[in-house]
Amino acid sequence: MQMGFHPTPATIDLGNEPPLVAFEDRNGPPTRREVSLRWLTGTVLTGFTSIFLIGGALVAALDGRYTVEAATPPASGAQIALQEGKAQKGDRVTGADSQFATRQVIQVNTLTREGDAVHIQAKPYALVNATLETRRSNEMALKIPPFNPLKLVSNNDVLPDRSASDSIYAAHVEGEVTISVHDFPVNKVKVDTGDETEDGEIERIVRDSGRFLSDDKAEVASLPVVDPGRFDFDLAQQSALSNLSVRIAAENVSFVSKTDDNPAYSDMEERIVPVREKTSLKAVLLDNEASEEEADDITARFAEDYNIEEVQPGQRVRIGKGTDDDTGEIRIERVSLYVDQVHQGTVALSDEGHYVAAAAPTTLMPDAFAAADRMTLSGPTPSLYTALYQTGLDNDLPEPLIEDLVHIFSYDVDYNSRVKLGDQLEVFYSLDQESNGQPPEVLYTSLTVGNETHHFYRFRTPDDGAVDFYDEDGRSAKKFLMRKPITGGRVSSPFGKRRHPILGFVKFHSGVDWAIARGTPIHATGDGVVEKAGWSSGYGRFTLIRHANGYETGYGHQQAIAKGIEPGVRVKQGEVIGYVGSSGRSTGPHVHYEVRINNKFVDPNRIKLPRGRVLEGELLASFERERDRIDALLQRSGPVQNRIASR
Q: Is the pTM value of this prediction over 0.85?
């Protein structure tokens, strides 16, 4: 090794390749190798093709043609929550029709008291649930008596006692059972007092039988003299029911949860209007409760898209109505025009709220077309009275029963108003009396008008034995006072300050003036005693009636006071007490009607009127038990909805 010698490092061959340079040529033009004209052309052509295809589909969809189809509503929880059994899988559940009627026959155990005996037997009852008819039938119109409000308010025997049963017996009974309770004849039977029972034996008998006892005297009297279990060596292997010789009878009853959903609003109501004479399409729509705006929009669309402005005899207009989800108002959602059964054109309401040309309805209804020719569908819907009576006749309700229903609801509804989509009647009545030629008894009834439902239950009050109908809170269907003392008429002068038509200065008006023809009967608006009947200065011939709870009603300007109406006479609600005239300080025939509460004048049209009788205490508790039994029957025997297959 030599001092100061440094070895030379070996040479590294880097080759002839160009060096790798980072970030130097990024901003420069792409090289030919990086661009493929074939792939670029394919991408551009694919994009243009997609634009043309999607754009063409959108143009075709938005070319003024809409296919309108109501979505099938989902099944509610009440439909799925069936208490017994499981349904098999089937087709898709469809929505309920807007017009429906169901009728079921149910065996109900009723309890009737005859003296000291209690008679229990099963009677057939019918449960009818139907929407009110919104179309007038020419055939049924001949059977419906004309609406007579005078008879309605003047009939004192509004709810005659037609019922034979006192209440519903909750337990199941086969056949007929009569239970009588009598004092034990200790004076006529020789009682052997020699055989005395020890205290321990008595205690054991009471302990064994006590769990089956109740407060009913009939069950106490039915105790066996000798304990049957005393000689039964297989007692430990027998159930309590077998020891009591109780036989369980299976009942063919379907259970379904009751729902508050209104089925009448779950789908569109279809109305078919046959054209009788040449007229404009707008006139047909206005006659069938379309608004001016709806009629103008629909006719404009028919004229623009189908060149149709008038309808000819023989054509049929198919009008579909539904409910606005936001406002709850009834609106026209679809209108179709047919010649015989050949579709001519359809206009429907779009999602944006505009009427547009639409495809023909997918469902043809030849039976409905034929039925429409027999119905009077043009014009507004029938009155509530006509709809109620026609619905009753269509469901085979006896006419006396329909008249009872008219009386029951007369204090809560206006029978001159028009029936609306969704109005509904439910009645639960007996069938055995009908078969015997007697008017049937009604256990329960309800009437839905608009968004309000009136429920009434039949109940016999034990204190006086009277039968009446009460709402769910125990208030009588008969109101304490009626709103006005005449049938018909108009308000010519309201309650409050006004300029007197004769005196010429502003003066407080203590009542409401109802103008009507001279000689129209005036009815007492409530039960009471006549305090005054005669001439009273500016009132003219005037009658003042005192009612219960500090209420008084006055009737002025009468032409004549009815015969027999004098101070001290007791009058009934609806009884004729006078006749309309123009006596006293008056400018024309009318009746001045005023209401006083503790000598203070109140507006008859605004006060909240109390009902006839309100149950309290033990009577209310007894009524609530009867109401709950009826509700249980309705809950158990309600109409069976579409069954949903369980998971």
A: no
